[in-house]
Design a protein that fits this description.
mainly alpha; globular
Length: about 240
C-alpha cells in the first residue's frame, strides 16, 4: 500500500513535468520551441521548483506528501498533494510561455502567479482549517475538494501570467485583469466548506457528493474562465 501511494504521487509529479515540457514545446518563445535544450533546461528548472515546493512549501500549509500520503497511507493527503503539484506546474508553465528577452521575465511571472495562488490557499486554510480534515481526520472528500480548488485556481492564475512580456507593471496589470475570477472561486469554496466539511453528525462525508462533485465544479469553472479569456497574447497558432 505504501509503495502504491508513493508510485501514484511520483507518477503525478512526473506527468506534471511532462506537461510543462509539452507546453513549452508548443507555446514557448521561438528560441525555446526550436531548441530542445532550452525546453529540457526549463522543464528541469520546473522540476526543481516543484520538488522544493513539495518538500518545503506544502508542509507549511499542513500538506506533507511523504509524512501523510506515503508513511501514513493517507489517501486524502495524496489527492491534495497531487492537485497542488499539478496546479503549481500549470502556473510555472503559464509564466514560462510567451516571448521575452530573458529568463528574469519567467521568474517574475511564475513568482507572481505562485504568490497569488498561495494567498488563496492560505485564505482557505485560515477560513476552514481544511488541512486538519485532510491530515488528522483523513477525510478523502476534503482532499478532493482542495485538490480541485488548487488546480482550478492554478488554471486561472497560470493563464493570467501567460503571454508576451512587456514590463513588470504590465504583467501585474494583466494578472489582475485576467485572474480576478480566482478570488471569486475562493469565496465560493469557503462557502462550500461550511457545508461539506466533516462534523460530529457526519464525521465521514461521502467522497463523491462532498468531494468529487465540488472538485469537478471548481475545475469546470476554471476551464470556463480559460475559454472566456481565449488565446493569450502571442500564442502560437
Amino acid at each position: 500500500m505504501r509503495s502504491s501511494m508513493r508510485w501514484v504521487g511520483e507518477t503525478s509529479f512526473a506527468a506534471s513535468i511532462l506537461m510543462v515540457a509539452g507546453m513549452l514545446q508548443a507555446w514557448g518563445a521561438k528560441e525555446v520551441r526550436y531548441d530542445t535544450g532550452e525546453v529540457v533546461f526549463l522543464a528541469f528548472a520546473g522540476a526543481v521548483w516543484l520538488l522544493l515546493a513539495r518538500r518545503l512549501l506544502f508542509p507549511c500549509m499542513g500538506l506533507s506528501f511523504y509524512d501523510d500520503a506515503v508513511e501514513r497511507k493517507n489517501r486524502a493527503s495524496l489527492a491534495a498533494s497531487c492537485g497542488a503539484i499539478l496546479a503549481l506546474a500549470i502556473i510555472y508553465a503559464g509564466g514560462s510561455i510567451g516571448e521575452g528577452p530573458s529568463y528574469w521575465e519567467n521568474v517574475f511571472s511564475v513568482a507572481l502567479g505562485t504568490a497569488g495562488w498561495l494567498v488563496l490557499w492560505i485564505l482557505i486554510e485560515i477560513g476552514t482549517k481544511i488541512s486538519r480534515s485532510i491530515a488528522e481526520e483523513r477525510d478523502l472528500a476534503s482532499g478532493l475538494r482542495l485538490s480541485g480548488f488548487l488546480v482550478a485556481t492554478g488554471l486561472i492564475l497560470g493563464r493570467a501570467v501567460a503571454g508576451d512580456w512587456h514590463s513588470e507593471a504590465a504583467t501585474i496589470h494583466d494578472f489582475f485583469r485576467d485572474g480576478w475570477a480566482a478570488p471569486i472561486l475562493c469565496a465560493t469554496a469557503l462557502l462550500v466548506e461550511k457545508f461539506a466539511q466533516p462534523n460530529r453528525r457526519r464525521p465521514f462525508p461521502p467522497w463523491t457528493s462532498h468531494g468529487l462533485i465540488p472538485a469537478l465544479v471548481y475545475l469546470a469553472f476554471g476551464i470556463a474562465w480559460l475559454w472566456r479569456l481565449g488565446p493569450w497574447e502571442g500564442m502560437p497558432k
